[in-house]
Amino acid sequence: MTMRLPSPSIRQVAQKLLALAALSVIVASSPPAWANKHAGNVHWVHRAGAATLESLWKAELARGKPVIAVFTADWCTPCKALKALLDEDPKVKAAAAPARFLFIDVDEWRGPAQSLIPGVNAQQLPTVVRVDALGKALVTCFGTDLGLLSAESTATNIKRLIAGQSLERPAYEKDPNTSRDLAVADNARQIAKAKARPPVGVQVLKKTALAGGGTRVSLRLQLSNANGARRFVVMPKNAGKPLSLAPTVSLWRELRFTEHVRATVLEFEGEPAFWAIPVAGFGSADISGLEIDLPPRQKTIELWTLASLTVGTAPVQFQKKLPYALEIARGGERTVLWSASSPPKTSLVIAERHPVTLP
Question: What is the domain partition of the chain in residue ranges?
């Protein structure tokens, strides 16, 4: 059974649930306390060696526990809301406990994901499917059908989903005032929770002595965007040549991280050279492997969150499907998507400054 979609206005409200805020800068030597943790019954089906999605799927079905497939993508806002409820809300966690929720990224498994369950082609995300022991669909719905503005509605519908029953329409859909109040209350909770999330966290992963003196440092950057609009965070490639509002750029290019299907970083060569890292609205990026050169005895750097980045006469455009919680473990492994030389003018407008002292 494919359930009815909620009205566009309700979907738009649901997309604003997870507002994040950030107040300070940290330099960390271990993963931050705010790092996301999945509930024990929430599992992401990622690629593993030569294993196919079908083989991983059959192994999960063989566990004997009720299975609910969640077709998702790391740029999908309702997917993010559903994940947060499953991981964090006590009512939803209790309702979901009897089942195993398998999150399957349709970009990571492009092709196999769309044909995994007979009769289910995940075009709208998240597509949520309760399957039987053979992997055949019993109930199919969309994430917003669960009632993501209300933990109670979501918990009730997850129980029905596990039982193989059709879902109940969330009561708040009948009352715009209730929908608004739920969205405002949830937004306030998310902002309060986000106060512990700093905009910039830095770890030193590796230090290499440079022939002419100084040190090349490989970093882990943990970035959080407290703004609803997408932002670039920029970092100098050489701490001895700090960032400039009007750099002289000789070459700029877009590099794709090889471990992700679409995640990229911009590299600008010139005076000064710098990295520009896109971060989704109310999103985060955790990237290991970007490098910076430190002159002898220098341990301080400054990163900027930008209000705008302009090359020539036009603002630099963000990719359409920007991951909301990007994680890159091998940031040094990149391929060049395109490069361009000698832009007529490059200008940066600062939203926030983030001074950092490296250990």
Answer: 8-18+25-194, 200-357
Angle, CA 156 vertex, CA 155 and CA 157 arms, to 5°: 95
Cα–Cα distance measured from residue 11 to residue 4, given in angstroms and rounded to the nearest whole number:
12
- Assign domain 8-18+25-194 to its CATH superfamily: Glutaredoxin (3.40.30.10)
Greatest Cα-to-Cα distance within the chain, rounded to the nearest angstrom: 69
DSSP assignments along 36-104, one per residue = ----TTEEE----TT--HHHHHHHHHTT-S-EEEEEE-TT-HHHHHHHHHHHH-HHHHHHHTTSEEEEE
Residue that has been written with the tokens 């361009």 in this structure = 340
Q: Give yes or no for a contact between 289 and 281, defined as CB atoms under 8 angstroms apart.
A: no
Cis peptide before 355 (omega within 30 of 0): no
Please give the model's pTM, rounded to 2 decimal places: 0.80
* DSSP letters spanning 180-235: HHHHHHHHHHHHHHHTT--SEEEEEEEEEE-TTSSEEEEEEEEEE--SSS-EEEEE
Contacts of 117 (CB under 8 A, 6+ apart): 69, 129, 131, 135, 136, 137
Spatial contact of 11 and 145, defined as CB atoms under 8 Å apart: no
* 123 C-beta neighbours (distance < 10 Å), count: 9
- Distance of CA 216 to CAs 236, 238, 299, Å? 12, 9, 12
- Read off the tokens for 104: 């399957």
61: its two tokens: 């079905």
Task: Show the tokens assigned to 34.
Answer: 């705010």
Query: Which secondary structure element, helix H or strand E, spans residue 353, and what is its range?
Result: strand 346-357
- pLDDT tens across the length of the chain (359 residues): 333 333 344 344 333 433 332 223 333 333 333 334 566 889 999 888 899 999 999 999 999 899 999 999 999 989 999 999 999 999 999 999 999 999 999 999 999 999 999 999 898 999 999 999 999 999 999 998 999 999 999 999 999 999 999 999 988 888 888 888 888 887 776 666 655 678 999 999 999 999 888 999 999 999 998 887 899 999 999 999 999 999 999 999 999 999 998 999 999 999 999 999 999 988 899 999 999 999 998 999 999 999 999 998 889 999 889 999 999 999 999 999 999 987 779 999 999 999 999 88
